What we know:
By secondary structure, the protein is mostly helical. It has helices at residues 2-12, 35-45, 47-63, 72-100, 113-116, 118-133, 136-145, 148-164, 167-185, 188-205, 210-221, 223-235, 237-247, 252-260, 263-279, 283-292, 296-330, 332-362. Helix 3 crosses helix 4 (72-100).
Amino acid sequence: xxxxxxxxxxxxxxxxxxxxxxxxxxxxxxxxxxxxxxxxxxxxxxxxxxxxxxxxxxxxxxxxxxxxxxxxxxxxxxxxxxxxxxxxxxxxxxxxxxxxxxxxxxxxxxxxxxxxxxxxxxxxxxxxxxxxxxxxxxxxxxxxxxxxxxxxxxxxxxxxxxxxxxxxxxxxxxxxxxxxxxxxxxxxxxxxxxxxxxxxxxxxxxxxxxxxxxxxxxxxxxxxxxxxxxxxxxxxxxxxxxxxxxxxxxxxxxxxxxxxxxxxxxxxxxxxxxxxxxxxxxxxxxxxxxxxxxxxxxxxxxxxxxxxxxxxxxxxxxxxxxxxxxxxxxxxxxxxxxxxxxxxxxxxxxxxxxxxxxxxxxx
Length: 363
């Protein structure tokens, strides 16, 4: 029976469409880097390999001198720049690895920054999201602007009208009522109670005079037969109720009029229910529990899937910065002048480019 009732409710109550929110489409989960950054990332990706090859060539040259001796000073300079570049790369690589490794506390190496502060990170994430992103006011505003309460009310009204006029539902209601009544009237205790009630009612409604006297005489003289009639009457109640329900026909327009007359009250009730549910969600506790339940590997994957490209870029950029630091070590004046000229030129180009783009947007 419950399966049939569930099927009927699903047929008439389309509540899922009430929660279809007209929200903007989400952005890509991993927005690509801009074109110039992609080009820089591709170039920087080969920096560690180039530096490693240069270091290997110089060490091989020190063992087997296969290059002209006249340029030996240049070989040494290239070697120093390559070493400082690799130091910068390895330093950044190690710093990034130390964010997540070791995953578990070690006696000497300790534990990575992220797993060691997992609960603190979960607390900060949960606090920031529940306060500024997914708070109670935001949820209620989204549901209110989408008209969820109104659409729910409309779906309930239409579903109720359709359900009450569904022949299968009416047959199921009649069958259920009849089965309950049969069980009720066959119970000896309830059967006696009904017989007593019917007998008392008959004595009240039977008129005075000859007809009433004959009825009372029959009741006294044939008490056994009288109570057998009453018992059969009680046992026939389920069939009588079923027949009455079959002939009961509520006009669809009457149902619709009744339901629509309560639309405003239903919308108010559903609005209060939604507000109450949203206020009880405890978003901070939900978010905190979800993030704190991550193990060390899941937490690392969470960070890496969102920042992997940027971390790789920073890691490879360390090789370039290491080479620049080597230039500063070998010739500080040249390094300062070169850095000043380079940064100044880039700043001028960036400023001019930015203003040109802004003027085009205004036009």
